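Worked problem 6 (solution included).
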Amino acid sequence: MTIAFLLVASGFGQRAFAQQFAIRSNALSTGPLQTPDFGVEIIAGEHSSVSFSVAGHYKPYGLDTKLITVQPQYRFWFSGRPLNREYVGVAALYAGYDIRLGKGIYNGNAVGAGITGGYVLSMGKRWGIEFSGGLALIAFNQKRYTRSDSYEDYYAGDSDWANSKGYCLMPFNLGVTFIYIIK
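Solution. The predicted structure is:
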């Protein structure tokens, strides 16, 4: 459903491109952070593309953390050839998490939007490596407490309630991503 929407919204049928669709995985996220990442990117025009990525983990390195993220993104390519050389983009983010580190417990979600930029180095006809980074404003809504607190204190009736809300400006979309172009 999401891919069908992106195809229609991007004007997929307006012009035939030799490279229409790519799959991608962020090695920085998947490797050292143990948060597998998978995405797709669809060329929307001579200078634009849209991408959609999901990532998540469950207890990486034995830490008691769970995370799932979803990130749609629009990119403008300066070279006139998407998936090649430099770009700037705007992206949104949703994350759901349950993190238990030390005595602290953080359970909630976050949404945000930011700007991103990067460079794709072509490694042949179908392969590329992308280096990216950006900055985002993230809003979070979470239950925050310590292991010694009574968990029941964080319920109001039958529903959970957040005791910690806020905004933060943070690095965003950092990555070294491998791209495979599908024709």
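Discussion: Residues 1-17 have pLDDT under 50 and may be disordered.
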